[in-house]
Amino acid sequence: MARYPGSLTDVTGIRVGHAQDEHSLTGCSAILCPAEGAVAGGVVRGYAPGTRETALLQPGMLVGRVHAILLTGGSAFGLAAADGVMRYLEEHGVGYDTGVARVPIVPAAVLFDLNVGDALVRPTAAMGYEAAQAASAHAVLQGNVGAGTGATVGKFAGPHWAMKGGLGMASLQQEGVVVAALIAVNALGNISDPETGQVLAGARGPDGAGWARVLASVDGGPKASPGNTVIGVLATNASLDGPAATRLAHAGHDGLARAIQPAHTLYDGDTLFALSVGSATANPVMIDALATAAVERAVANAVLEAQAVAGFPAARDYQHNDG
User: Fold this and answer.
1) Torsion sign, CA atoms 170, 246, 87, 29
2) Least packed by Cβ within 10 Å: which of 6, 173, 186, 195?
3) CA distance 191 to 224
4) Are the beta carbons of 17 and 9 closer than 8 angstroms?
5) What's the rounded Cα separation, in Å, for the pair 294 and 171?
6) What is the C-alpha end-to-end distance of the chain, expressed in Å?
7) Strand intervals (E) in 5-158
8) Helix (H, G, I), strand (E, B) or coil at 284
9) Over its length of 323 residues, how does the chain's per-residue pLDDT go in tens digits?
10) CB 163 within 8 A of CB 227
11) Which residues pair with 233 in a beta bridge?
């Protein structure tokens, strides 16, 4: 069902692994960098974020590289899964050399999926370790995997009209530069196709005729729960410094704003990371444009690859009438 090609692992040196509890509907995704780490940036634009190790992504910090990124369900509880990724990397001798120990640097971000499956089951350090252990340079799984396992979309009209979200990937290449995105889509808003502009998944109209309108739904007062947030990673083989990597993450957020209506709300903790692991030279305007498009495509793939669970229909199954 994926409409757009590509994987985050199209960027040489990046590995992706997932772990999930399909009964409790939660999971996490580990994105591993080369052993020497990757130059990284990150941007939080939602107003309800849950993150770890994001301050060190700002310019001027001592540690200039990261060794992995964790995306996880479980709300703030899920940040514990990063401990498992750190343990896996430490066992393999990967981390920032402090002289007495190598400390793996693993920024992380969470989405809220406690209202979908079993609220008492969240990603743990053991699940994070499992995701890191499963990491592969050939990862292509999308939909109900990893951090997208319990994701849902279109909740601005209330949870009863929401649909299944998921995890999606896409990549683009131009003039030898590769930019790829991996996005776990758990949005308050509706998801649109980047080429046609048509809604792919979101808040269903209560009469079964098309989609709920954002302005009409919000005008009567907030019906949405705080259970949202879109999180993701951009990667490129272009050589970037920290500020340029952060600009790439900003460009990725432009893709979120195009693909999701509304995005970056009070009830979302939308967070994107960006990784540079190569030596290619890139025009800064071109690479930002590639990042925006890759995110849009990955968001679309996330809902197109998703499967219905727990009463939330998936885009592949939902038949609607826009007339």
Assistant:
1) negative
2) 195
3) 16
4) no
5) 6
6) 24
7) 15-21, 26-32, 38-44, 51-52, 65-66, 68-72, 96-97, 102-103, 108-110, 152-153
8) helix
9) 678 999 999 999 999 999 999 999 999 999 999 999 999 999 999 999 999 999 999 888 899 899 999 999 999 999 999 999 999 999 999 999 999 999 999 999 999 999 999 999 999 999 999 999 999 999 889 999 999 999 999 998 888 899 999 999 999 999 999 999 999 999 999 999 999 999 999 999 876 568 887 765 555 544 556 689 999 999 999 999 999 999 999 999 999 999 999 999 999 999 999 999 999 999 999 999 999 999 999 999 999 999 999 899 999 988 654 43
10) no
11) 182, 273
From CA 160, how far away is CA 295, in angstroms rounded? Answer: 27
For 80, 97, 305, the CA distances from 4, given in Å and listed in that order, are 33, 40, 11
Q: How far is CA 289 from CA 107, 248, 255, 300, 317, in A?
A: 25, 9, 9, 17, 32
Domains present along the chain, CATH in parentheses: 8-305 (3.60.70.12)
Model confidence, pTM:
0.95
> Phi and psi of 129, rounded to 5°?
-60, -45
Closest listed residue to residue 26, CA positions, set 105, 101, 133, 121:
121
Identify the DSSP state of 309. B
Residue 167, both tokens: 């995890």
- What count of residues does the chain have? 323
For 204-243, give the DSSP string: B-TTSSSB--HHHHHHT-----S----EEEEEEEE---HH
Helix/strand/coil for 89 = helix
Q: Which of 11, 4, 81, 86 is nearest to 50 (CA)?
A: 81
**Helix axis angle, 242-259 relative to 284-305, nearest 10°?**
50
